[in-house]
Amino acid sequence: MPDLNPTEHPVIAAIKQRYSAYQFSNKAVEAEKLQSLFEAARWAASSFNEQPWRFIVATKDSPTQYDKALGCLVEANQGWAQAAPVIVLTAVKQEFTYNGSPNRVALHDLGQAAAHMALQAAELGLVIHQMAGIQQDKVASTYSLPDGFTAETAIAIGYPGEGNLNDAEARARQRKPLDELVFSDAWGNASELF
Ligand SMILES: Cc1cc2nc3c(=O)[nH]c(=O)nc-3n(C[C@H](O)[C@H](O)[C@H](O)COP(=O)(O)O)c2cc1C
After folding, report:
1. Per-residue pLDDT for 138 more than 80?
2. C-alpha 115: how far from its chain's center?
């Protein structure tokens, strides 16, 4: 995979390669590679090791299951995501198991697991695209989510489509400068590191 991201400091190859694809090859993703993606997610850190993340996976090998998952995305996302051979829906457990108190970092931990998955995907030559645009109530009813769990995001997974990045993919290759993001001593005071 080519380096896509114009980083200003050295990072691991997967970070340089990762991007949110809108174009996918119609090649199926091998079961072993999907297993590796979920393994990568599983080994993310989480507060109190709660591992609040849950995933529902559907592939085009099972068209009924695939359509069920795709139908839980908002329409705009269904438009491009239907090219992806794999759709994953995510959910989190809202309370800590050890004491039943609200887990205010459950979404943080899901994001961390998703980031693991994204970097593992880049390493394997796959592309993934995370989505906030899902119908949360529809996920809950379609899959009978138990009390205490909320549907959160979706992830489209596949091999990259042929050809160059499309406009949306290319536009996303921009980031805020680090001196707007990393402060020292006072809020807004750019760290001398940058
Ligand atoms: C939690 C999350 C939700 C997102 N939701 C959507 C979405 O609903 N639809 C979409 O097209 N892209 C979505 N994206 C993709 C972002 O637009 C994309 O990550 C951003 O533009 C940066 O581009 P890059 O991932 O290619 O670096 C989402 C990304 C994340 C992490």
Report:
1. yes
2. 6
Please tell me the distance from the alpha carbon of residue 59 to that of residue 85, in angstroms, as a whole number.
6
- Cβ of 17 less than 6 Å from ligand 1: no
Ligand 1 mutation pick, 15, 19, 20, max ligand atoms within 8 A of CB = 20
Q: Which of 115, 135, 102, 107 is nearest to 41 (CA)?
A: 115
Cα separation values, 191 from 7, 178, 179, Å: 18, 9, 7
Torsion-angle region of 66 (φ positive above 0: left; ψ -120 to 50: alpha; else: beta): alpha
pTM: 0.96
Helix (H) or strand (E) holding 184: none
Helices (H), ranges, the chain: 13-17, 31-42, 63-70, 75-81, 106-123, 136-142, 167-171
**Buried b vs exposed e over 32-52: b needs ≥16 C-beta within 10 Å?**
ebbebbbebbeebebeeebbb
- Say yes or no: CB of residue 71 within 6 Å of ligand 1: no
* C-alpha to C-alpha distances, 22 to 18, 44, 55, 155, 169, nearest whole angstrom: 13, 26, 21, 12, 7
Calculate mean pLDDT across residues 121-140: 98
